[in-house]
Design brief:
This protein is an alpha/beta fold. It folds into 2 domains: about 170 residues, Alpha-Beta Complex (Aspartate Aminotransferase, domain 1); about 250 residues, 3-Layer(aba) Sandwich (Aspartate Aminotransferase, domain 2), CATH 3.40.640.10. It is about 40% helix and about 15% strand. The strands form 5 sheets. A 5-stranded mixed β-sheet has the order 2-8-7-6-5, sandwiched between helices. Strands 9-12-11 form a 3-stranded antiparallel β-sheet.
Length: about 450
């Protein structure tokens, strides 16, 4: 019997321009880390070799997107670029009305102010930092209704982003549907490790919320990646295109907030999309206060043009296969080295289980923050903490203690090669070998909001 030939995988693009990187010594990295208070967010980007801090706004734009920059209409009112963006969103996502914003959290601010009243309850499939803060500032309380499997890094449920309908029903029974302005559903749940939601779960959620008169607001920043997982993992979708799956996902929701800095492959931009005219009317009034006129809302015309092109490119089958495939490659290298990561491998990055990596460190010693610092010190690879620091404090001042204490290796789209992925995995393996000698950190400065961005630490 003839042995089948193995075929290598490669990126579906080629490079026209490169950015030269600064190579540093361990001594230089230690100085940079000390100056940054052991917070990778406070490192100077020039001191970073491979930057996996985030996939937000760090993607490489295509030649078509750069070309679109040149056709941007910078008119203050009625820019043609707005109408191109509006038509693209209506075509690919199906939402009726569009309010541009400078990025996703601005859209979160708008929808929170419009829909949430003091004392309201906002259920969602795991919190996200900025989303929950906007909900709290508007007077609401977030309640986690994600399935239990999402809180277990070793559980290999294929759709760990799913909503637990029994949990949602318990919230509705306790507070009443009238106290729930909407259910917040993220596609590809960031804090769970980039885990997708199934179409079956979305359909069931839509049926339940329709019965109770509750809206669904969609955090759709990585919706195309979620669609790829549905295509690969869910029965009945293998022969559907990513474009078709994305449109179906959106059809089960009433509106969406979007950070175009992820899926749409741009460096800045976002929007609020909604199907309800009254909400749209209020949003386009508020956006003038916080962002800009409703036909640009914080974005230049060239940015709106680039977002429109990026949305279309995010639906490309080859692009998504390569994008998620690169993350899978990195995850599998980590597994080969015995490094404990969140399983199954998610869409936009690898998430290391810092509790399992550093079991001798209690959560109050910030194991994920410590590990992110150690990896940078070893190789200049910048990652970020997604654990107790990111979780922040409850309104009463107590720390949240999330089950997941993770270090996120977020892979920007179309930026790095597989050789970079090898360097990242090998550096992490080096740190893993000396893990028993790693000590924790203490927090010496804590800002009032979203402390993970600016907090400072010192080694114990």
């Amino acid at each position: 019997m003839e042995t089948p030939k193995r075929r290598s995988w490669a990126e579906p693009y080629r490079m026209k321009m490169v950015e030269l990187l600064k190579m540093t010594t361990r001594e230089e990295r230690l100085k940079a880390l000390q100056d940054a208070g052991y917070n990778t967010f406070l490192l100077h980007a020039d001191d970073v070799y491979i930057d996996l801090l985030t996939d937000s706004g760090t993607n490489a734009m295509s030649d078509r997107q750069w070309s679109a920059f040149m056709t941007g209409d910078e008119a203050y009112a009625g820019s043609k670029s707005y109408y191109i963006l509006e038509e693209t969103i209506q075509t690919h996502y199906g939402y009726k009305y569009v309010v541009p914003t400078h990025q996703g959290r601005a859209a979160e601010n708008l929808i929170s102010q419009i829909l949430i009243k003091k004392g309201d309850i906002v259920p969602g499939n795991m919190y996200f930092t900025t989303t929950r803060l906007h909900q709290e500032l508007a007077g609401g309380t977030f309640v986690d209704i994600i399935i239990d499997e999402a809180h277990d890094p070793t559980n290999e449920h294929p759709f760990k982003g799913n909503v637990d309908l029994d949990k949602l029903d318990a919230v509705v029974r306790q507070y009443g549907a009238e106290k729930i302005p909407y259910v917040c559903v993220a596609t590809n749940v960031n804090m769970a490790g980039g885990q997708p939601v199934s179409m079956a779960n979305l359909k069931a959620l839509r049926e339940y919320t329709h019965k109770h008169g509750i809206r669904i607001i969609h955090d759709m920043t990585r919706v195309a990646e979620n669609a790829y997982f549905i295509q690969q993992r869910e029965n009945g979708y293998q022969d559907k295109s990513i474009k078709e799956i994305v449109l179906e996902i959106c059809s089960y929701t009433d509106g969406a907030t979007m950070s175009a800095k992820k899926d749409a492959l741009v460096n800045i931009g976002g929007f609020l999309a909604i199907n309800d005219w009254d909400i749209f009317e209020e949003a386009r009034n508020l956006v003038v206060v916080y962002e800009g006129l409703h036909t640009y809302g914080g974005m230049a015309g060239r940015d709106m043009e680039a977002v429109a092109v990026g949305i279309a490119e995010s639906m490309d089958e080859h692009h998504q296969r390569a994008r998620v495939g690169q993350v899978e490659y990195l995850g599998n290298r980590m597994i080969e080295f015995g490094i404990p990561i969140v399983k199954p491998i998610g869409g936009h990055g690898i998430f290391i289980d810092a509790k399992a990596f550093l079991p001798h460190l209690k959560q109050d010693l910030f194991p994920a923050q410590t590990l992110a610092a150690e990896i940078y010190l070893d190789s200049g690879v910048r990652t970020m903490e997604r654990g107790i620091v990111s979780a922040g404090r409850k309104p009463n001042g107590e720390n949240y203690y999330p089950n997941l204490e993770l270090v996120r290796f977020t892979v920007p789209r179309r930026v790095y090669t597989q050789a970079h992925m090898d360097v990242i995995a090998e550096s992490t393996a080096e740190v893993f070998e000396k893990r028993d000698r790693i000590k924790g950190l203490k927090m010496v400065y804590e800002p009032k909001y979203l402390r993970f961005f600016q907090a400072r630490f010192e080694p114990l």
